[in-house]
Structures are given as structure tokens and as C-alpha cells.
From TrEMBL, chain A:
Residues 26-73 form the SERTA domain. One of its GO terms (cellular component) is nucleus. It comes from Oncorhynchus kisutch (Coho salmon). It comes from the Eukaryota. The gene is CDCA4. Pfam families: SERTA. This is Cell division cycle associated 4. PROSITE patterns: SERTA. Residues 162-183 are annotated as: Disordered.
TrEMBL record, chain B:
One of its GO terms (cellular component) is protein phosphatase type 2A complex. It comes from Oncorhynchus kisutch (Coho salmon). PP2A consists of a common heterodimeric core enzyme, composed of a 36 kDa catalytic subunit (subunit C) and a 65 kDa constant regulatory subunit (PR65 or subunit A), that associates with a variety of regulatory subunits. The gene is LOC109879147. Belongs to the phosphatase 2A regulatory subunit B family. This is Serine/threonine-protein phosphatase 2A 55 kDa regulatory subunit B.
Amino acid sequence: MANMYSKGTKRKFSDGVDNKAVAASYSLQRQSLLDMSLLKLQLCHMLAEPNLCRSVLIANTVRQIQEEMAHDGSWQVVTEALGGSGHGPSDRLVDTEVLCQSSEQQDGGPRLYSVMGYDGCREEEVVTDKALCSVVVGDRAPALLLGTIGHCWDRGELRVEDGVSKDSGTGEEEGTKSGEGAKMATGQVFGTFEIKNGAPGSDPALEELFSDVDASYYDLDTMLTGMQSAPKMGPYDFLDSLASSHGSVSNSSCRADLNELDHIMEIIVGS
Amino acid sequence: MEAFSCRCYQFNLLLVMLFVTADIISTVEFNHSGELLATGDKGGRVVIFQQELESKNQPQCRGEYNVYSTFQSHEPEFDYLKSLEIEEKINKIRWLPQKNAAQFLLSTNDKTIKLWKISERDKRPEGYNLKEEDGRYRDPTTVTTLRVPVFQPMDLMVEASPRRVFANAHTYHINSISVNSDCETYLSADDLRINLWNLEITDRSFNIVDIKPVNMEELTEVITAAEFHPNQCNTFVYSSSKGTIRLCDMRASALCDQHSKLFEEPEDPSNRSFFSEIISSISDVKFSHSGRYMMTRDYLSVKIWDLNMESRPVETYQVHEYLRSKLCSLYENDCIFDKFECCWNGNDSVVMTGSYNNFFRMFDRGYRQDVTLEASRESSKPRSVLKPRKVCTGGKRKKDEISVDSLDFNKKILHTAWHPQDNIIAVATTNNLYIFQDKL
């Protein structure tokens, strides 16, 4: 199993039942890898030491997987399966777009960019749903993912260099271009990572967040002991508090405080 | 320089010194004579060790080093404009060739490079005309004769003072610094740019490489390491996260975005996986002392390149091939992103690099032999020879072998250094510095 997984060779769907089982297992593991990678990207800014190289490598891995999935036609399978989900995936997409916009109004940059421009986002220990903007995917998945992640980098970078950074065009443009492609996927797969803003009633959503994460990748190489996934945490230890769903109230008040602070800063800075 | 010609598998390495540091060691570097060994740590401190004078005369005890100087090189900073904390961790230290009595080194954190002067003071002036020995001024009416202060010996004091601060030139995190053979300039490299500095001038640097794409969306590759050629002051190389090395000639143009040579090995299709790119990312590049070769370290191997051949390395050494089937777990726990360094011995016949479980590996280029050794207190009884270690990759585990599953991935040796002339090596585990020498 592990050997098969470590090779990224394409599987041909054929009539043999065995082949199908093998292919299905490969797809599952590939999906796990994709999930794991996206989670890493989102949590990039929570590392003790942010690392552009690491982020770029993970993003490239995600791109590779998505390219293979798109090429396989598996992407179509996934998206068709999600077509009947209750949430209009396009609604979900709109949500993320709205969030992108609102973060722009708040002095741009830091919160959004789990991937890049971490010059701008290092200190932000709070993960928000805005981070989700970076994981819109679709038929034109690779370009889109690039687009949104890069947009994040770009804005962070602009903020760093020019301090003026109101590059609002790109995000929306990418959003509308996504069209038929992006709508589908975001729904279930990446929507599960979405964290609702503010309200204490978001506990169930938070649990749901992690209930959908496929934990099987923890078991992929069970022979290795002592290798539990342990993203290096900043002082806030946000992930733990989310998972336990006890700390969410204090977190949301924390977040509210931060939002307020940013609002005040915005007034002072006069942006 | 004539170094010992023992083959590495014939090395009988003894543990000579073991230092426990307060903080995680982040860089280790011998100076050009090997008399001094500098370490930088996560807390921004630099500790310099000096080879004992007695041991320099007694070949049996060459490896005796003692603490010579300790100073705080970098402090944590907060960039208020960008709301960023800047870590004080020392990423690299590079010594300047010695020109006078004082020693100079460059140390850098993520953003700022500093030139430090380390000088000794073993005399002080005594016998002032107008002052008492304790510094109080004498009553002028009691001064009836003229005397001139003279220097008297005192206990040795080693002072480190910052002579230059090279700041504000890097948007991204500095990963490398390298002093040019002209001893006037040096380069500093971050993830996307390389700058050239004059050691005397702190308010200006020239950008010589810029790989930042116009659209950050298109960013797929970063700079991981850079180094000047040891002899040709116009030549430097930089490595990337895609496993390529570019050699640049500064005479060709001011901005060296066009490489003179591109070193890249074609991918082996039978080993292709989603992790191929990550493990091809080069974590360190080092020229040989001769300047004819360069060595690169990627996640699983060390490669030696002939500068005259770009198509593939001339030698490849597997550091821990048994990890290839574990890449997914190593990706999950981020170990796959660990940046191992590598180094040459004095006559370029042996190369060394670190691994996990406090193992480090040496490869003898001439005899094509390699050895795995361990830097740990349990396995390093003072004055007894280090025993080679072996990792069992499958099947029946022999006595004294360790199985892959028992390896401790938290115990990693990222930084090693080799004395420029002797067979003395410095190996840094998380917060222990081991100095080994070979038994004569």
C-alpha cells in the first residue's frame, strides 16, 4: 500500500475489479494527501518560524495533485458528487469572496495569507475563514489556486513594499472567472475548513470542521513510531482549542478584540 | 594544505569535547585556520571556542577547545510597520580571513547582517598622571611630578564589538551569507533575492539576483542557498527549491538573473512521486576547497558536481535512502522540510552531513566508502573510539543495528563543520556541541 502510494503513477481504469480497488485506494490516499497539504497551507502562519520555501513546496504539491486529478477525470467525479449538496456551492464561493472583500477593508494583508506574504501575516495567530479564499479550486484548478494564493502573496507583498496595497481587483476577478469549475469543489471538500465568524454558536461548525478531515493519513505509515503530526504552534494554540470546542467563546471574543483593534488602527492610520 | 590522508572508514574518532548550550544551535563554523570555532544559537548568541595552545603543540590533544568569547549578536526585534516579529536566531556565521590581530566574523539573522570584531586585550595602561588607579582624580596640588602611563599585563579579556550593521536590504528571510575571495565584498541571499555588499559600506547594497516574479501567483521556486567561489571573485552559485544550481558570473551583467551555467540532474522516472520535488529541494551548497567541485545536499542525498559538467553530478551519495518509503509520514510531521547542511574535509577527499537519530554520515570520495556515526552521550564515552552504526532496512535486525522504525526524528543533526586542516569535526545536535578528533 505504502509503496504504491509513494509513486505518483497514473492508474488506468480497466474492467478488472482488482484494478478498480487499487485505483480507488490510490485516489483515497491522494485525496488525503491533498487534504493534509491544504491544512498545512492554512496553518502556515501558525508556525513558530514561517517558511516561504516550505509554503512554496506545499503549494506546488497541491498543484501537482490537482493537475493529476483534473487530468484523471477524478476531479469531475468529485465535483459531480458534490453537485447535489444542500449548500449551493456557489453560495459558499460567494461567502469566501465576501470575506476576501471585508478583509481588504480592514487594512488588507495579514489575516488572509496563510500561504505567502507571511511578512505580513506572521503575527496573526487567529485562523479565520478568510484564509479559505486561498483554496478556491475548480476545473481550472491549478491556475485558480495559484491565482488566489498568489493574490494573497501579492497583496501581502504590496503591503510590505508600497504600504498602499489596495489591489482589490484580482481576487474578485479570479472569483468570477471560476465560473462553472470552482463552484463545485469548494462546497464540501474545502468548505469544511471554513470557520464561521464570531458567534459562540459556531461550536457545531467547528466540530464539523474537523469531523470531515480524513484522519486516515495519520495511519498511512503506521510502522513509524512517535511521528504524530504536530504542527508547530504559536503561543495561542488555536488548533487545540478549536478541536476541543471549549475555547471557542474566548477565541471569538479574542477575535472580536483583534477586529476592534484593527478597526481603531485603520482609523489612526487613515487607510 | 596537507591534511591527514586516512580514509574515513578508517577514522577512529574520539569524543574530545562536549558542550551543552543554553539554546538550540543554529550554525557552526570553523575560522580559516581552525583555531576558532563559532556557534550561533536560536537566542541570538554567538559562542566562540578556541583551540587550546597546549593541544596545538601536542598532536594527541588537538581537539581541545574551550570557550573563548560569548556575546549577544542579535536581539529579537519587532517591526512595527509590518507588525512582524523578527527572530534573533542566528542563521549563519562566516569568518573573514584574518588580516591583523583581531578576528572578524559576519553573523546574520533573518533580516540583518552584522560584522563583529573579536579582539584580545591583555594589557592595560597604568600609572596615570592625574588619576588614581581606581579612576578618581588626584588633587592637583599633590601632583608634583610628571609620569606617563605604561602598559601592564592583565588577565586576558576577549571583546566582541559590532563594527558594521547591514540592515534593511532583505524583504524575505536571509538563508545564506558568503564572503568573497577578494575580502572586500560579500553576498547575502534570501528566498528571492541575492545582494552584494561592500564590507565597509552599510547603507547600500547591490541586488545581483532577483527571482521574484512580477505576479507572486507565479512563484514556484525559491533560493535556498548561495556561495561565492573560493578563488574566483566574480563567480557565485545559488541553489533552488527545485533542485537546480545556477552559477553566475558577475562580470557578465549587473543583474545576474541569467545564469552562466545551470546544474540539474534529470529526474529518475521510476522514483517519481508527489514528494519528488520536495526531496529534490537543495538545502545546502558548498564549493570544494579547490574550487573545482561543488556539493549539494537534498533531502535524501549528497551530490558532488564538477563545475565543468552541468548535466548531472559526478558523484551521488545516499544519506538515508531507507526514508524514501516513509516520505508521507515525514511530510506529515514536517521532517521532510528539514534543512541539512554538508561540509568538505580539508583536502576535499571526504564529505560529511547529518541525519536523524543523532546520526551523521561521512563519505570517502576516493575509496567510495561511507560510515554512519552517532553523536550522543550514550554512544560517546570520552576517549573511546566511536563505533559505526547501521540502520536495518528490513528483514532480520542484527545485533547493534537499529531499525528504521526506532529512529528518533526529533534528534536531527543539521549542522556540522570540519576543521580546515586537521581531522577535527564539530557536530551539533539540538543543544549539544560535540567535537571529535581522530585517534592517532
